[in-house]
Specification:
With 156 residues, the chain is α/β, with parallel strands linked by helices. It is built from six helices and five strands.
C-alpha cells in the first residue's frame, strides 16, 4: 500500500472506497501509510443494500445480478469515485463465511472487487474465491489482491 500511496501522490491522483464485506479494511490500510491524507478523498462502508443505493448503486442492478456481483462492485467503484471526485474508486462486495438472510442470491465465499479509473473511464475487476478462514485472514487476502491489481494499473 505504501507504493500505491506514493504513486498516487507523485501523479497528483486520489482514491475513494466503498466497501461492504471488508468493512473499511481497504481504507484503513491506506490510512496506515504516511501521506494518506493527500490521496484518500472519502470512504464509505455500505453493508446494507439501502446504503449502497443511497450512495448511487442502482437497485435494478442489485435486483438483476444480486448485491454480490461484479456488476454491483463496478457500480460501487464508479459511484464512490464520482461522489468523492476521486481519480480512482474501489468497490468491494461479497459473502465471507456466512449466510445473508437478506440477500440469499450470490455465491458463497466469493468476493468481487472493482477499481474504477476516472481518467481512462475503465474498470479493473476481479472475482476472488475465498478459503474458509477467519474474516481477518480473508480481508488480508482481499487486500493483497486489490493492492496487486491497483499497482498494475498505476504502473501502466
Amino acid at each position: 500500500m505504501k507504493e500505491i500511496v506514493e504513486l498516487l501522490i507523485s501523479k497528483g491522483e486520489t482514491v475513494a472506497t466503498m466497501e461492504s464485506c471488508t468493512g473499511g479494511f481497504i481504507a484503513n490500510a491506506i490510512t496506515n501509510i504516511e501521506g494518506a491524507s493527500n490521496v484518500l478523498q472519502f470512504s464509505a462502508v455500505t453493508y446494507s443494500n439501502e446504503y449502497k443505493i443511497k450512495m448511487g448503486v442502482s437497485d435494478k442492478t442489485i435486483d438483476t445480478y444480486s448485491v454480490y456481483s461484479e456488476e454491483v462492485a463496478k457500480e460501487m467503484s464508479y459511484q464512490i469515485s464520482e461522489y468523492a471526485h476521486a481519480t480512482y474508486g474501489i468497490g468491494v462486495t461479497g459473502k465471507m463465511n456466512r449466510q445473508d438472510p437478506n440477500n440469499k442470491r450470490g455465491e458463497e465465499n466469493v468476493v468481487y472487487f472493482s477499481i474504477y479509473d476516472a481518467n481512462r473511464e475503465s474498470y479493473y475487476t476481479k472475482k476472488l474465491m475465498l478459503p474458509f478462514q477467519s474474516r481477518e485472514e480473508c480481508k488480508n487476502l482481499i487486500l493483497q489482491e486489490i493492492v496487486s491489481l491497483f499497482l498494475d494499473q498505476l504502473k501502466s
